[in-house]
């Protein structure tokens, strides 16, 4: 082979060599450098930007990891069999219908990679979870972004318009991504609305319902999309241990789907995608119902307290069934975000979602929430 000189002596730049789907992507913007801020401010920063559970993981999960540490020279179980068996029992489904991921983020990406290509379209809501458009673009598929419900909507302002989402499905649509409740809006839809949606969507369109905040939900009429799974084999339900189970740093999530969907995902799955500490911690966390109940109860009461304290200061938040509140300032939120940042309070700006008037604030522990309120006051 003859080595051709590079055209015009342009400096080497691999960006020109990226495939079409990757060329259209941008790297994840990690926001503030939290490790650097922690070094600078120590314990004095209030981290309310990433929807982490301030109560921390189950002590049983910590103990299970301590025991498993000595075995980390071995590869993890590539099947994740013990955790899948525990989840199967917990959810009342066959273990062959469960896939485990390095966070549910990985599973959401794999679904598009396995099932969509440039000839297909993928449907999701405006203000839907940020991973949906990224997964679509990474697969080179065509995004169909459906306008959200209006800000004035009583139950789900800026939430998913399921009627419009169903109407947007085309003959070439392979996937629909829904989040219930949704991040960053905090909004939700009930079982009956999902049932009507599923009845309208053709059987060979995969409907993904991302239930990352499922454990926090207590709104009437909302249980889980899993209740529709028997009648709708095209339904996929994704969950995570990052939020209510407080294991975000371990990166572990799962999905429940028809066994044939799981079998396709298995072709792409990296053999050891879930690490051995995550496997044992998730199993122990799942078994600790009392710890989960404490997290749920704390979040419900603290979220209500925080929403009220924010409203008393003129910051109205959208209704939420999650562990965060979206506040809408009605003006650009940039200066408030900076004001909070300078006082050691980290919240999430929403410009990337096209919601530059909003800030997303995670429900922290009481000390961090008070710190937020103090920073708003001064
Ligand atoms: C946090 C979150 C996830 C979970 O991400 P992991 O990769 O499991 O940490 C998934 N979907 C939504 C809507 C989320 O907010």
- Pattern of helices and strands: HHEHHEHEHEHEHEEEHHHEHEEEH
| CATH fold title of the largest domain | Aspartate Aminotransferase, domain 2
Measured as a percent range, the helix fraction is 25-40%
CATH class of the largest domain: Alpha Beta
DSSP summary: helix tally: 13
**What ligands can be seen in this structure?**
pyridoxal-5'-phosphate
**Low-confidence sequence ranges:** none
- Tell me the span between the first and last alpha carbons: 69 Å
Strand order of the largest sheet: 2-8-7-6-5-3-4
Number of strands: 12
Write out the CATH superfamily name of the largest domain: Type I PLP-dependent aspartate aminotransferase-like (Major domain)
- Biggest β-sheet strands, sense, barrel: 7 strands, mixed
Shape estimate: globular
Q: Kindly state the mean pLDDT as a whole number?
A: 96
Q: State the CATH architecture of the largest domain.
A: 3-Layer(aba) Sandwich
- Rounded to the nearest angstrom, the radius of gyration is 22 Å
Total individual domains: 2
Label the structural class.
Answer: alpha/beta
């Amino acid at each position: 082979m003859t080595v051709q000189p590079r055209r015009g002596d342009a400096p080497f730049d691999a960006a020109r060599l990226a495939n079409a789907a990757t060329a259209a992507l941008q790297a994840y913007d990690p926001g503030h450098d939290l490790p650097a801020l922690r070094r600078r401010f120590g314990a004095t920063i209030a981290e309310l930007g990433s929807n982490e559970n301030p109560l921390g993981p189950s002590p049983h999960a910590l103990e299970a990891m301590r025991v498993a540490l000595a075995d980390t020279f071995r590869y993890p179980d590539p099947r994740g069999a013990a955790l899948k068996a525990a989840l199967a029992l917990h959810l009342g489904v066959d273990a062959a219908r469960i896939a485990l991921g390095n966070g549910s983020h990985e599973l959401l990406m794999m679904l598009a990679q396995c099932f969509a290509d440039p000839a297909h379209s993928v449907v999701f809501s405006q203000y839907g979870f940020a991973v949906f458009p990224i997964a679509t673009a990474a697969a080179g598929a065509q995004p169909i972004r459906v306008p959200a419900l209006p800000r004035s909507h009583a139950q789900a302002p800026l939430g998913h318009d399921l009627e419009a989402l169903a109407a947007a499905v085309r003959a070439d649509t392979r996937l629909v991504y829904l989040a219930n409740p949704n991040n960053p809006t905090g909004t939700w839809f009930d079982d009956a609305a999902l049932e009507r949606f599923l009845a309208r969507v053709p059987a060979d369109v995969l409907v993904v319902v991302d239930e990352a905040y499922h454990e926090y939900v207590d709104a009437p009429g909302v249980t889980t999309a899993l209740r529709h799974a028997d009648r709708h084999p095209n339904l996929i339900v994704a969950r995570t241990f990052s939020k209510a189970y407080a294991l975000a740093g371990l990166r572990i999530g799962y999905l429940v789907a028809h066994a044939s969907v799981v079998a396709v995902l298995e072709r792409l799955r990296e053999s050891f995608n879930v690490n051995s500490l995550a496997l044992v911690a998730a199993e122990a966390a799942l078994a600790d119902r009392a710890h989960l109940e404490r997290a749920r109860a704390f979040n419900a009461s603290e979220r209500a307290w925080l929403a009220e304290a924010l409203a008393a200061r003129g910051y109205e938040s959208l209704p939420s069934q999650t562990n965060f509140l979206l506040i809408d300032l009605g003006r650009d939120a940039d200066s408030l975000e900076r004001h909070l940042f300078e006082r050691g309070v980290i919240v999430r700006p929403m410009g990337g979602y096209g919601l530059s008037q909003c800030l997303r604030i995670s429900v922290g522990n009481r000390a961090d929430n008070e710190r937020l309120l103090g920073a708003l006051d001064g």
